[in-house]
Amino acid sequence: MNEPLLRFDTVSKTFGSETGGVRAARSVNFALHSGRALAIVGESGSGKTTCARMAMLEYLPTSGRVLFKGEPTAGRRGRDLATYRQAVQMIFQDPFASLNPAHTIAYHLKRTLRLHRPDIRSADLDAAVFEQLAGVKLDPAIVAPKYPHELSGGQRQRVNIARALAARPQVLVADEPTSMLDVSVRLGVLNLLNEMKAARNLGLLYITHDIATARYVAEDIAVMYSGQIVEWGDCGAVIDNPQHPYTKLLLSAVPDPACRFSDAASRIDPGAVEAVRRIAAKDQSEVVTAGENHFVLAV
Ligand SMILES: Nc1ncnc2c1ncn2[C@@H]1O[C@H](COP(=O)(O)OP(=O)(O)OP(=O)(O)O)[C@@H](O)[C@H]1O
């Protein structure tokens, strides 16, 4: 495979003091390639958003390096930083909070186009807005003049995706992009992200607590627990043949429509719960190969 778009090289992030602080990310390694999606999966507090924020250069790692196309991102300023901000775009969890209620959808998209697309003349901006909205399967004539509160959650998230894509990014960082949406529209938004990834050869960093959707969206997966990536590799291989007790636990917690709630608890292996508790605080470092493109930290 060629040079990854985005690479985390032994990245750690501690909030507070080195000794008594929260170790939100511990020696995290991953590579995101163009035209592929990498799902970072884990429970609340496992460190996923901290990794997303480091990818967006909002947080600096305490140690380790974040690389873009092989180049370290630390210390980027001025034009270099602006280029990175254009190339790596974020889609937030809350589609409403990320749009300004005082402005129309057309305003939001024009703003991004003015900022990142100097090649588009002012006279052509309206047409470009229409093109961006049509690209995410919204009716431009209806949606462009509306205010955010006049749209549904799913439509708002599509607008956010259109806005991110308007910058012509190479990487999309989507942090729980569907968790605040009605279940009925989630699939449509995930489908759209998948289509955009393929059509534009994007690298998609898909952050989720829902391992079931990871398989739907991503080619690669990294399972995160207590700040560490504990199992990673090909998404299908990891989900079909989980090796780490935490991955097993996460999979056994996925709701099964064929299973009654009262029976669901029996699917959770008490041994796995105990093993996961034991490993929470300790650093694991020995990597075991579980198959082609499938790796796990030894417990
Ligand atoms: N700015 C911060 N200051 C102090 N601690 C933080 C900060 N941001 C995150 N943390 C802590 O770091 C750990 C990882 O948090 P993070 O938000 O990355 O997890 P997450 O997996 O994204 O969870 P969620 O899905 O709930 O957002 C948590 O213990 C959290 O309390």
UniProtKB/TrEMBL annotation:
Domain ABC transporter stretches: 6-251
Domain of life: Bacteria
Keywords: ATP-binding, Nucleotide-binding, Transport
GO cellular component: plasma membrane
Its membrane topology: Peripheral membrane protein
PANTHER family associated with the record: ABC TRANSPORTER, ATP-BINDING PROTEIN (PTHR43776:SF8), TRANSPORT ATP-BINDING PROTEIN (PTHR43776)
Protein name: Peptide/nickel transport system ATP-binding protein
Native source species: Shinella granuli
